[in-house]
């Protein structure tokens, strides 16, 4: 698949603006063994490519072909391409520099499912002592650890806790395992903030915030700046406001992010 975005914004810049879908003018190409699709997004939805979009797509493929043949740094390529009708097109392409924070970026395109729990559930954002978190992680029936193993951050560890009945929690853990989650992201529309768990196979809407949206974003800012690592815990017990939290069953723990400090 290939996305061509208008202007100079990349996927990360588009996501940071809070857009729920690519901007108008975005070209999408999907190549398959038996079927392919070429469309452009417009105010009226996705439409077939017209002549100009087809020319831009041809130039993009020519640039990518040149780029893959480059062997020396800094991996730049340029050239000309004769398009149908004798039109000459020029292209120049270069690889963006590596982004050390790329694994914190969670791109989401598509519709977030709202059926993670088929019944009553509670979402809590809490900070738990590292020793207590390690106990939860060891007791979890399913533990998807971060690519870089987490260590004691020296302060409390942030968690998003999804709690419901034991049967519902078990089913939610199975759904998220199949979704192959990559992290939490947020979207905003008409003053309502939504928390989404994005995955390689499926995206799930976790909850919505209205009046307390500012507190949520302050909490999330602290998560991403203090340590960078966090986890989602699925259990049959809701954390209490005070005292030690000791749920009877921990269905799953999913770890995300990369710690920035120890």
Description:
- The chain has 262 residues and is an alpha+beta fold.
- The chain has two domains: 2-102, no CATH class; 104-257, no CATH class.
- The chain contains five helices and 14 strands.
- The protein has helices at residues 11-16, 51-69, 130-139, 166-179, 213-226; strands at residues 2-4, 27-30, 37-42, 45-48, 76-83, 87-94, 122-128, 142-144, 157-163, 181-189, 192-199, 204-209, 229-235, 250-257.
- A five-stranded mixed beta sheet has the order 7-9-13-14-8.
- The two termini are 38 Å apart.
Please give the structural blueprint.
Blueprint: E1 2-4, H1 11-16, E2 27-30, E3 37-42, E4 45-48, H2 51-69, E5 76-83, E6 87-94, E7 122-128, H3 130-139, E8 142-144, E9 157-163, H4 166-179, E10 181-189, E11 192-199, E12 204-209, H5 213-226, E13 229-235, E14 250-257
Parallel strand pairs: 8-14, 9-13
Antiparallel strand pairs: 1-2, 2-3, 3-4, 5-6, 7-9, 10-11, 11-12, 13-14
How would you summarize this macromolecular structure in one to three sentences?
The protein is α+β, with helices and mostly antiparallel strands and 262 residues long.
Mean pLDDT over the residues:
83
Number of contiguous helices: 5
Radius of gyration: 22 Å
**Main beta sheet:** 5 strands, mixed
Shape: elongated
Q: Specify the helix fraction band.
A: 10-25%
How many structurally independent domains? 2
Strand content: 25-35%
The assigned structural class equals alpha+beta
Biggest sheet: strand arrangement:
7-9-13-14-8
Q: What ranges have pLDDT less than 50 throughout 5 or more consecutive residues?
A: none
Measured between the Cα atoms of the first and last residue, the distance is 38 Å
Order of helices and strands: EHEEEHEEEHEEHEEEHEE
Q: Please give the oligomerization state of what you see.
A: single chain
Query: What's the number of extended β-strand segments?
Result: 14
